[in-house]
Specification:
Alpha-Beta Plaits; DNA polymerase, domain 1; Dna Ligase, domain 1; 15 helices; globular
C-alpha cells in the first residue's frame, strides 16, 4: 500500500458537451445534449444544465427530448474532441511522465516524483485543475488517493469542477458509508445478490470474511470485491496505455434492406472511423465489420493484413467485401466498422501483397490518399464535420445514432 495519496485521476466534466459550449458561446449556460439524433439514438454526453432535468449518458434520445425539450441537440464531432483531449493530455504529461490515458476524457497519474517541485498531492490536483481550465478552456475534476480505485471514486465525488484527495490512513472511513454499487464490478445482478445477503454499504462487505464472499459470488468476483472494500488495489500507473481498437457504429431508425443503402452507410462509417484513427496518430492492421439484424442477431467478420492501413478508401473496400457474407434483405438495424491491432508506426499504407513497380505504385497512391484525408481532417476540425464529405453523402439525410 502506498504511504501517500500520489495516484491522481483526472476526469473531464461533461466533455463532449463542454467542447461544444467552448466552441459556440451561444451554448454556454444552456442545456446541451450530444448524441445520435435519430429515433434510435442515445445520449453520449449531457451538459450539467441538461442533467438537472434528469438527462444522462446512455439515455435514449427520445426520452432526453421529452425530459428536456428546450435543450440544444448536437451530433458528436469526434475529431474536435480528440484534438481537445490531446491538449489536456499534454498538460498532464508536463506534470509527470507517468500518465495512463484510460479514454478520450480521463487518465491516471502517479505524481510521487513531482512532489518536490509541485507540493503535496492536493496541491498538485489543484494545479492540474486550474491549468486545464486556463490552457484548454475545459473543466476537470481530480481525485487523489493511495490506489487507482479510490482515486477514481474521489474524482467522481468531486464533480463538477472540483478536487478531492483521500488522505492516507482514512481510506476505510471514506469507503465505509458508500453503497456497494460504488465497487467496480457491482452491476444490477450482483447488487441484488449482495442486498439479499444484507450487504448495502462497503462497510458491510469489508466486515465479512473473504471466504463468505467467494462462496456467494465465486472466487474471482468475491475476492475482487472484498479486496476493493479494503482498498486493496496495488495496480501501478502504466504510461502509454495503447487503445485496443477504434470504431464507429450507427443504429438506423428504419432497418436497411438493400445493398446500396448498406454501402452508403459504410462510406460514412469508414470515413468516421479513419478520421478517429488518424486523430490518435495510429494505423491499424485489422478491419472488423459488425452487423445487427432487425431481430437483434449480431454478427461480425474481420480481416487482418500484413501492412498497416489508415486510409478510409482502403477500409471501405475491405468493409464492402466483408458485407458480402451477409443477407442484408433480412433487415439491418445496425452497422459498425472497427479497427484493431493499432500501432503508431506508419508503414507502407497498403493491404495488397504485390511485387515490384506495381507494389510501389500502389503504396504511393495509398500514401497520397492518406495525406489528402489528413488534410480533410484539419479542415473539419476548424469548420465542422460537414465541411468536407464524401460525394456519396452530399445529399441530406436524417442524422443517426453515432458512437
Amino acid at each position: 500500500m502506498r504511504a501517500e495519496p500520489t495516484i491522481l485521476h483526472v476526469d473531464l466534466d461533461a466533455f463532449f458537451a463542454a467542447v461544444e459550449q467552448l466552441d459556440d458561446v451561444s451554448l454556454r449556460g444552456r442545456p446541451v445534449i450530444v448524441g445520435g439524433l435519430g429515433g434510435r439514438g442515445v445520449v453520449s454526453t449531457a451538459s450539467y444544465e441538461a442533467r438537472r432535468f434528469g438527462v444522462h449518458s446512455a439515455m435514449p434520445m427520445v426520452r432526453a427530448r421529452a425530459a428536456c425539450p428546450h435543450a440544444v441537440f448536437v451530433s458528436p464531432r469526434m475529431s474536435r474532441y480528440s484534438e481537445k483531449s490531446r491538449e489536456v493530455m499534454a498538460v498532464l504529461a508536463s506534470i509527470t511522465p507517468l500518465v495512463e490515458q484510460l479514454s478520450i476524457d480521463e487518465a491516471f497519474l502517479d505524481v510521487a516524483g513531482a512532489r518536490r517541485l509541485l507540493g503535496d498531492p492536493a496541491e498538485i490536483a489543484e494545479t492540474l485543475r486550474s491549468r486545464i481550465r486556463r490552457e484548454t478552456g475545459l473543466a476537470a475534476s481530480v481525485g487523489g488517493a493511495t490506489s487507482k480505485f479510490l482515486a477514481k471514486l474521489a474524482s467522481d465525488m468531486a464533480k463538477p469542477d472540483g478536487t478531492m484527495v483521500v488522505a492516507a490512513g482514512t481510506e476505510q472511513a471514506f469507503l465505509a458509508p458508500l453503497p456497494v454499487t460504488r465497487l467496480w464490478g457491482v452491476g444490477p445482478a450482483t447488487q441484488r445478490k449482495l442486498e439479499g445477503m444484507g450487504l448495502r454499504t462497503i462497510a458491510d462487505v469489508a466486515a465479512l470474511d473473504e471466504s463468505t464472499m467467494t462462496r456467494a459470488l465465486g472466487n474471482s468476483l468475491g475476492r475482487h470485491l472484498w479486496a476493493l472494500a479494503h482498498n486493496d488495489d496495488d495496480r501501478a500507473v502504466v504510461p502509454d496505455r495503447a487503445l485496443q481498437s477504434i470504431g464507429a457504429e450507427e443504429t438506423f431508425g428504419v432497418d436497411l434492406r438493400t445493398r446500396a443503402d448498406c454501402e452508403r452507410e459504410l462510406v460514412r462509417l469508414a470515413d468516421r472511423v479513419c478520421a478517429r484513427l488518424r486523430a490518435s496518430a495510429q494505423v491499424a492492421r485489422t478491419v472488423t465489420l459488425k452487423i445487427r439484424f432487425g431481430n437483434f442477431e449480431t454478427r461480425t467478420r474481420a480481416r487482418t493484413f500484413n501492412e498497416a492501413v489508415e486510409s478510409s478508401t482502403t477500409v471501405l473496400d475491405v468493409a464492402r467485401e466483408l458485407l458480402d457474407a451477409f443477407d442484408v434483405t433480412r433487415g439491418v438495424r445496425l452497422l459498425g466498422v472497427s479497427l484493431s491491432q493499432l500501432d503508431t508506426t506508419r508503414a507502407s499504407q497498403t493491404v495488397l501483397d504485390l511485387a515490384g513497380e506495381q507494389e510501389a505504385e500502389t503504396q504511393a497512391r495509398a500514401q497520397r490518399r492518406a495525406a489528402v484525408e489528413r488534410a480533410v481532417d484539419d479542415v473539419r476540425s476548424r469548420f465542422g464535420a460537414r465541411a468536407v464529405q464524401p460525394a456519396t453523402l452530399v445529399e441530406s439525410d436524417p442524422p443517426r445514432q453515432e458512437r
